[in-house]
Structures are given as C-alpha cells and as structure tokens.
Amino acid sequence: MVDRAGEFRGVLPIPDRQHIGLTTYDAKDPDTAFPPIEPLLPPEGAPNVLVILLDDVGYGASSAFGGPVHTPTAERLQRDGLTYTRFHTTALCAPTRAALLSGRNHHSVGMGLITETATSAPGSCGIRPNTKAALPMTLKLNGYSTAQFGKCHEVPPWQTSPVGPFDAWPSGGGGFEHFYGFIGGENNQYFPALYDGFAPVEPDRTPEEGYHLTEDLADRAIEWVRTQKALAPDKPFFVYFAPGATHAPHHVPAEWADKYAGRFAGGWDAERESILDRQKQRQIVPEGADLTDRPDAIPVWDDMDDALKPVLERQMEVYAGFLEHTDFHVGRVVDAIDAMGALDNTLVYYIIGDNGASAEGTLNGAFNEMANFNGLAAIETPEFMAEMKDKLGTAEAYNHYSVGWAWAMCSPFQWTKQVASHWGGTRNGTIVHWPDGISSKGEIRSQFTHVIDVAATVLEAAGLPHPTFVNGVQQAPIEGTSMLYSFNDAAAPERHDLQYFEMAGNRGIYHKGWSAVTRHSTPWLPNEVLPALDDDVWELYDGTTDWTQAHDLAAEMPEKLAELQRLWLIEAVKYNVLPIDDRRFERLNPTIAGRPQLVSGNKQVLFPGMKRLSEHSVIDIKNRSFSVTAAVETSTNGATNGVVVAQGGRFGGWALYVKKGRTAFVYNLLGMREFTIEATEDIPSGSHQIRAEFAYDGGGLAKGGDVTLYHDGRSVGTGRVEQTQPMIFSADETTDIGDDYGMSVSVGYPGETRFNGRIDVVQIEVGDDDHSHLIDPEEVIRVATSRQ
C-alpha cells in the first residue's frame, strides 16, 4: 500500500530512500539541494488509539452491562459510542492479551495457557513467532507514539529476569516506546513490583500515604499523554491501559468497598436474577433470553453456612468497590485526553474484562489466593475466614471472592474464567468510542466479534495495511476481522462468523449463530480428576433463538453437533491447538513441561544489590533440601540488622536475615503461619560465613523439615518448619539480596529490612532429593488439613 505521502508501508521499517541527483562540492553552491527531512507520520487523519483492558471482570458486573457495580466512565462512553454485546475473549488473561496485541488467535502466537505453564508445543510455548508482529510494533514503525501502562503477562518465565532477553517485554520486541507496569499475572495493589521500561522501580508512596497501583498507573498514563501531545502534537498515540484490576488480590481503600455495605445480602442467586432484569431493561440482552441454570458444583446461597455469609458479603462489597475505583481512574485518563481536545479523534476500546469473572477463589473465597494455587485451600477454614473478614481489601490480605460471586458476575451465562467452552468464560462487555469516526451514538451492536479483531480494526481506522514484512521477517496474515464495517451500520451482516475456543481442555466452536461446546475442567479445583478428552460431553446451542446458551440441543440434533465438532477439529489443527493439554500441576514444573529454565544445576551464586529477581530467575528450593550460605561482615554489640536474602513476601516466602546481631531464618506459610529459627549467640564482629540448612522430610510435596543455623561451620541454632509451599511462593513478590522489596516475608524484622553490614556473596544450593515430580494432590490436601 502506498499512502498519500508516497510511502510504501507494506515493509516495515519503511525503507530509507537514497538521494539521487546532483551532489555539489560546496554546500554554498546555489545548486545544492536535498529534500527536507520529515518526521515519520501515519496517513493523514489517523486517530489516536486508547485500548483499555480490565482484568477478570464478568459480563454482568459493570452497570454499563446491567451489573450491580457503578461504572460511570463506561456508561459515559456508551452514550456517545457503541456497545458491543457479543464481544469475546479467550477465557484467560495472557492468551487474551497475546491475541489482542497480535491480531491472531492465542495458540497461533504460542499462548495456549498462561506463560508460567508454557510447554514445548508450538501452541503453548509462550513465544510469539516473529512472523506475527505485535500491533504496537506495526504502529510505531508507521509513526505512532506508543505506550503501555499496567499488566504484561506475555513474557516467558525464563525471560523475566534483569538480563532478558527482552523480545517479549513491552518496550523490547513488544513495540512500546514506553512501559510502566508489571510483568506477570497479578500484582499487589499496595506493594507492586514495578518496571519503568526494563528497570525495576518502587512506588513513591506507601499505602498509608494513599498509594494504590491503579491510581499510579492512571497518573503515569496522563503524564505521558500530556507530554506526547505537548511535544509531538502531529503524531497520534497508541496507549494500552491495562491495570491489574480487578484481578485478585482485590485491594481497594475501605471507603470504596463501604459504598456497597449490605448491597449483596441477598446472595448470588438473587443477584443473577436482578442482573438479567437490568440487562433486559438496557437491551444488553434480548427480552426473551433465559437465565442459565446453576451448575451442581456451585452451591445455593441459602445452603451456605450462616456464620460465613457476612464474610461472603464483604468479599463482594470489596470487589464491587475495586471495580468502581478502577472505572473512576479509567475516567481520569479519558478526561485528560478530552481536556487536551484529543478525545474526538481517539478510537477508544473499553474492554471490560480479559475473560469472565475469576472463580479461582474457592467456594468460600480466599484470604490468600495463593493457598489454592498451591493445592492448600483447605488451610483457609470457615473459622479462619471469619477472623479475617475485616482485613479483606487491605494490605494485610491477598483476598479473592467466592466462586458463587464469580458465577453471578458472569450473568446471564454459564460458567466463568478458564471455561472457554461457555460464554461466561469468554463474553465480555465492550464499548467503542470515536466521535470523529462513528456517526452513530449510543447504539448497540450485536455482531459476533472477538479480541483478535481489535488489531485489524485499528489498522483500518488508521489507513494502514497489514504489513508484509516487519524487521526483515515475512509476516503471516492477521487472523482477526476489522469491526469498522459495523461502526455505522447496526444491521451489517457479521463478518467474523467462525471462531474456535480452547483452554486447558475446555473447548468450543462458534459458526454462524451456532455453538458447540464441552466443559472439561473446573477452575477452582486444581486437584480435580479429569475425564479422558474423548469422554467429554458436548452441548449444542442455537444462538439465533437461545442467546445465553440455556437450552442444549445436542440430543435433538446430533448431525449438527457432529458437523460443528469436525469444524472445531479443523480449526484446532489450523491454529496449533493440538495437542490438547489439560495438565495443571505438571505444567508448573519446567522439566515436565519441556520449557527452558534460566537457572539450572544445583547451585546459584547471588551478589549484593541484586533485586526483583522473579521466582523463575532463582533456583527452585521447593519440595527438597537446600542451604543458603552468605559471606558477610558485621558490627559489634549486636548492631547488625537486616535481610541477607529474601524470596517471596508477606503472603508466602522465606528469608535469611540478621536480627540484633544474630542469624535467623524464617519460613512464611501463605501469610498464615511463620516458622522462625534464631541463633543462640551473636555473630562475631568482622568477616564471617552464616548459613541455614533445611533438611526436607521427603515423601512427597509440601512436607516440612528441620533447620540448622551455622556461624563459620559451627551449629548455633536449630528449629523446625512444619509445612512448606509446594508450587509457588508469590505471583508478584521477588528475590532480593541485602533487602526485601515489596512486602516483607516476616513481620518479625527489626524495622528497616536493608542489611546494615556488608554482604560479599550469597550461595543457594539444593539437594538431590527433589520431590517436585511426585504430583500427589490428595496427599497435599491431607497434610494441609492435618495441620489445622
């Protein structure tokens, strides 16, 4: 494609043109002439683009889509824009984000599941092929200013360290000139692990001083947009605003949660009915649509323990406050663009959720969602949850809401996040706002659309071609369909009429109004015994008469079901879905999964000043014996204090530290119990070696072990850790040398965590008694329960 400026944009970067003509000897010669240098710009009229992607918001949560949570920014954009009622995601965060930013199906870009479960299979390897360049890269190479704020969950785990490679990082191969946010699936909203570009940075305030991550991200986005428009007003921007909200942990100042006090006393069953009524009133859902049945796996509200109900109510109040708080800060970004006079020519996508609401919080909800991810949810008893009620939403909790609330927030559909087979997992409310490009205002669009359509839409709106070559690599076609055709024509026949879905064995196919689906696994049951894939039961729905997938026609129309099943298989082959991989715990183990490991062998040496090392950047000490040895220099009179090495944080991890001149080791089990072993004597002043040895009990996962402390090879203290975390310490905290960034592993530190002596080197060594391959979830649960 050649645009009006005469630039050929099918090859990116646009090739430089050598000047051909008279070259004079003296620049003062009157015949000296060269064409002026002009900045690279996209075609005239190309809009700014703002893509807002919220996290873990079900279709029925936002008031813009009939939900109970007040979202005035979404409603404001609805009034002057378009509401897409059949927009779809992939049912999980990293796959949706990879699909959004590439315009390709998630298996096509190697993101069959989340990055932490990457395998060696092409569809699940966690690596986007260089034949499928990201949208921001294409836009940057066409003259857009590009910036991302918030969550990036597309970096393979072995590339998350400070040494990269940075091909998958936003400001590396991702195509963003500026990035401020976090790498990974979730983050603590009060103590986030942040990056500015590639450099780890710390928040400039504490929660007590009013810090919250969503507000910080909005501040940074506003600052960047103002700067961009002040200094390069002729260049359009592409801003990707992806807060960690409303993914767990559900963190929000109490005043936002308190707005909803008592609002959810009726429970999730009644809430679903109310949501559907409001959806019909808003014409978000057809008048004749039926509410889908409650799955047997989800309890009736009335059957829940009366003593637990106040906790369950508070969980939903906190979540509602969290979502309204998020929408408020999205509104600040929109207002800032409007105040600069740029909103009318800004194509805004407000995608309210990257999948359905998250049902990963167990039936009772969670004080620390990491318990379930470690197979230890049984630790959080109803009695314990009742004790923690008033801490939900605060920095003292890492909380999630109950499965029942997630299901209600996906109303009127079946199921939730992770369940790619049903609309509850994949249908998300989406609003498109672009006054200069859309003459229709406040209208509804019911065409089937998908997250892979966003890239194609942006390129068409900007007048840009799908590139043939990017950075010297020939490109595969974009797989999405531009939505531009529907912007000003509500009756336009849908163009995206075929779409497969698959996530951990949950699978489905949409074709011209029909859908065939099969649910294979349950999101909140990581220890579930799964059926053989061929034993899965398929369902059939006619979307022209059954908008919510409420009436299964499989028994009545077996031929139609078989037709769609074959079509799913064809699409699965086409887009690298096969082999279907329903493993869970196994895929967390890199050796079993077949992905690279940044650190191998039995020994790792670390140095002072190293910080924000992801869990994948450090040798794995779980389910085995290990030792930590440090060469330090200390002061006299017990004046030496601080952390030598810490992994994880307040909600799970371990640390070797010095307290009032004495060595100590702490193991924090999920933020619920700390096992602390302290030396019986001071470290002598001067240079010495301190050491902690952990002797694992063996026999499976999550076992305990004995700890011995040493000064210069001499035993100075012993103690015991009764149980350990088998899978993961934290989704956001890191490993730090000489300090403990984020939230401290232990509440027992002596004030400041920075080590005030000198550390020369730290060595972590693991034994050969690795039990990680012994995947025995039932044993993990038994051990967890027996510790109560």
Automatic annotation (TrEMBL):
InterPro entries: Alkaline_phosphatase_core_sf, ConA-like_dom_sf, EF_Hand_1_Ca_BS, Sulfatase, Sulfatase_N. Coiled coil: none annotated. Residues 47-463 form the Sulfatase N-terminal domain. Pfam families: Sulfatase. It comes from the Bacteria. Belongs to the sulfatase family. PANTHER family: ARYLSULFATASE FAMILY MEMBER, BLL2667 PROTEIN. This is Sulfatase-like hydrolase/transferase. It comes from Rhodococcus daqingensis. The lineage of its organism: Bacteria, Bacillati, Actinomycetota, Actinomycetes, Mycobacteriales.
